[in-house]
């Protein structure tokens, strides 16, 4: 087979024995290239991914521990829905605005040390926040904002390390493992937060679990993880992809239609997940109080059952969603190179009606509500690993941390930075009285906004599908010319289908 002859993605499934032997030799050759190119052995690369996954899990555990005990926090400080939403908003804003700074550092300096600093700082601040006195709610807001430093230093960098350790299907598989930690960690945040709070009869203890686990993560980073070479396993070592100025990077990314549109689509995902993550357990509890299934929390601890159930649902749906999204995308890729954005679009468009039914059925049937939440969250979770993969194969290695940071800024600025607070403010404005009916009804009406945003996000991913082939090929054929924007290689064949490039 000539170098320029197109290769079908489905070839491995229909080859004869000789083809199998040839593919086996190619697999060994690719594995050797990856190890020698990245400078990291295959065993250490796998351990590195597992450590990064563990840290990602801790990040999301900490983020949603507060949501798991939100009813207790509202009762403890005597705050309304608007102030409750601020707890998530200040964290996301800090995380969002610091992401470009850490993205800039991550593209130029040792990523392992940057992450170690951020996680250490995050662990200390989280522990400090657990000692907030009753009369100083602003202290809890401040410390939750500072927690964003740790996550900004980690989330912008960790996927780029995985991208420098693996290519093609291996990269997709490892990113799937990495992004399992988002829904699973989120679910564990509800579970651990609510159960530790109930066991200690004090919600403050819920915030003291992840700091200790965070310090273990720092030790693993410093001792086990080895910094891989940027872009080496893609046959484009760092000396062939020299650094360009930050403004040049931003200009190039702004012209990358697939990156821009997929980021806007992911913004819708962030808006919906941010709203549901903070408000769903509280909404379910208010529905149960309104229907008489549960007593209101006037003194002591509030019921933690809704946080526990929602946490379990989030864990399960996260695993199912990420797995099914990757597998469907892999199967569809044999038929169209536009598979990734199409699967993302389908996930959002299918989640919209189930989220709407979950919100409207809350007062009629608790079981039906949980079933619809299960289905809606499963479809919503299909996007996580795929969106990350899209970014990595439409952006060149030396701009990936900057791209991750820019995606974080846009998706959170327009997504979950404001959505929890917005939902809370709308809820407060719609509430006519402070009765149990209007506490439930106002929050119910405000949460309906999530279904509309899901549809808009699906439209952005459909638009991404129009440009994904072109942008993937440009990223593969990129060669730097001093500090100029993107230029394709003139001497490289473009005969290989873009469905076989990088992923």
TrEMBL record:
Belongs to the major facilitator superfamily. Spinster (TC 2.A.1.49) family. It holds the Pfam family MFS_1. GO terms for cellular component: lysosomal membrane. It comes from the Eukaryota. The keyword Transmembrane helix applies. The keyword Transmembrane applies. This is Protein spinster homolog 1. It is a multi-pass membrane protein. One of its GO terms (biological process) is lipid transport.
């Amino acid at each position: 087979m000539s170098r320029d002859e197109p290769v079908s993605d489905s070839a491995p499934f229909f080859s004869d024995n000789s083809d199998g032997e040839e593919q086996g030799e190619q697999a060994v050759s690719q594995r050797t290239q990856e190890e020698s190119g990245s400078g990291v052995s295959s065993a250490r690369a796998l351990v590195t991914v597992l450590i990064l996954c563990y840290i990602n899990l801790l990040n999301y555990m900490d983020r949603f521990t507060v949501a798991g005990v939100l009813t207790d926090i509202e009762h403890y400080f005597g705050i309304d829905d608007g102030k409750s939403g601020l707890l998530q908003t200040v964290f996301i804003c800090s995380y969002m605005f610091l992401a470009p700074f850490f993205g800039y550092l991550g593209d130029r300096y040792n990523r392992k040390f940057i992450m170690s600093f951020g996680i250490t700082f995050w662990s200390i601040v989280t522990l400090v926040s657990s000692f907030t006195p009753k009369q100083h709610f602003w202290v809890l807001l401040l410390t939750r904002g500072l927690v964003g430093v740790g996550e900004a230093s980690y989330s912008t960098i960790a996927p780029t390390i995985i991208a420098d350790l693996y290519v093609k299907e291996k990269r997709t598989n490892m990113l799937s493992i990495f992004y399992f930690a988002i829904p699973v960690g989120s679910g564990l945040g509800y579970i651990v937060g609510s159960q530790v709070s109930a066991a200690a009869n004090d919600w403050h203890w819920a915030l003291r679990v992840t700091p200790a686990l965070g310090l273990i993560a720092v030790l693993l980073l410093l001792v086990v993880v080895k910094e891989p070479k940027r872009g080496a396993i893609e046959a484009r070592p760092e000396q062939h992809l020299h650094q360009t100025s930050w403004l040049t990077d931003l200009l190039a990314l702004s012209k990358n239609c697939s990156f821009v549109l997929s980021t806007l689509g992911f913004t819708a995902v962030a808006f919906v997940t941010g709203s549901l993550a903070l408000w769903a357990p509280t909404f379910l509890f208010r529905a149960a109080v309104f229907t008489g299934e549960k007593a209101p929390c006037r003194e002591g601890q509030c019921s933690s059952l809704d946080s526990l159930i929602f946490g379990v649902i989030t864990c399960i749906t996260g695993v199912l969603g990420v797995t099914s999204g990757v597998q469907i995308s892999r199967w569809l890729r044999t038929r169209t190179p536009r598979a990734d954005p199409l699967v993302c679009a389908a996930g959002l468009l299918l989640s919209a009606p189930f989220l709407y039914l979950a919100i409207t059925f809350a007062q009629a049937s608790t079981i039906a509500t949980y079933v619809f939440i299960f289905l809606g969250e499963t479809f919503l979770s299909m996007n996580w690993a795929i969106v990350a993969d899209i970014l990595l194969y439409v952006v060149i290695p030396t701009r990936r941390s900057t791209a991750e940071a820019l995606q974080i800024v846009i998706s959170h600025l327009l997504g979950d930075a404001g959505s929890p607070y917005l939902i809370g403010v709308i809820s407060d404005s719609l509430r006519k009285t402070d009765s149990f009916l209007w506490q439930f009804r106002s929050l119910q009406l405000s949460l309906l906004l999530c279904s509309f945003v899901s549809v808009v996000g699906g439209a952005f991913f459909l638009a991404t599908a129009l440009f994904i082939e072109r942008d993937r090929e440009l990223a593969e054929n990129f060669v730097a010319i001093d500090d100029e924007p993107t230029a394709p290689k003139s001497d490289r064949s473009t005969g290989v289908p873009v469905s076989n490039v990088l992923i």
